[in-house]
Amino acid sequence: MKRRRIRFAADALDASVAVGIVAGIGTPHLADGFLAAMQRVLPLTFCTVFALGANGRVVTVSTASNYGDAALQTAGRYIENRFDLLDPNMVWLSARALPKQPQLWL
Fold first, then answer.
1. CB count, 10 Å around CB of 47?
2. Residues whose CB is less than 8 angstroms from the CB of residue 106 and which lie 6 or more positions away in sequence, other chains included
3. pLDDT for position 25
4. What is the pLDDT of residue 64?
5. pTM of the predicted protein model
6. 3-state SS string over 1-63?
7. Which of 67, 73, 31 is nearest to 51 (CA)?
8. What percent of the chain is helix, strand and coil (3-state, nearest 5)?
9. What is the longest distance spanned by two Cα atoms in the chain?
10. SS3 for 78?
11. How many other CB atoms sit within 10 Å of the CB of residue 9?
């Protein structure tokens, strides 16, 4: 994985991009809005939004790709091969005790 410095954009984010992201919340199209927004500053071709399920396992929330279902296939392999166990953020999240009530936050 390559790390890239994100530079401030000369132009402000177009309101339609922000609306696209917000409109995707709660739908399978959440990653579409994120991909469109991030492609303005990074050379990305796909985006996958993961979450931790109640059992502490990774689940795919949404995928978007410039190449058909590439993001969906990659997400499936990520979960199937348990790459989440190598991701320090996922390891930290899954090690936390589950809350007594669901926590809803972004």
1. 21
2. 25
3. 87
4. 92
5. 0.69
6. CCCCCCCCCCCCCCHHHHHHHHHHCCCCCHHHHHHHHHCCCCCCCEEEEEEECCCCCEEEEEE
7. 31
8. 40, 15, 45
9. 45
10. helix
11. 9
Question: pLDDT tens, 22-37?
Answer: 888 888 889 998 898 8
Q: Tell me the C-alpha distance between 45 and 71, whole Å.
A: 9
Say what the pLDDT of residue 78 is: 85
Q: Which amino acid is at 15?
A: A
What phi and psi values does residue 104 have, to the nearest 5 degrees? -110, 110
Specify the 3-state DSSP secondary structure of 36.
Answer: helix
- For position 52, what pLDDT does the model report? 79
In the chain, which stretches have pLDDT less than 50? none
As a whole number of angstroms, the distance between CA 3 and CA 68 comes to 25
Query: 76-91: string of b/e by CB count within 10 Å (b at 16+)?
Result: eebeeeeebeeeeebe
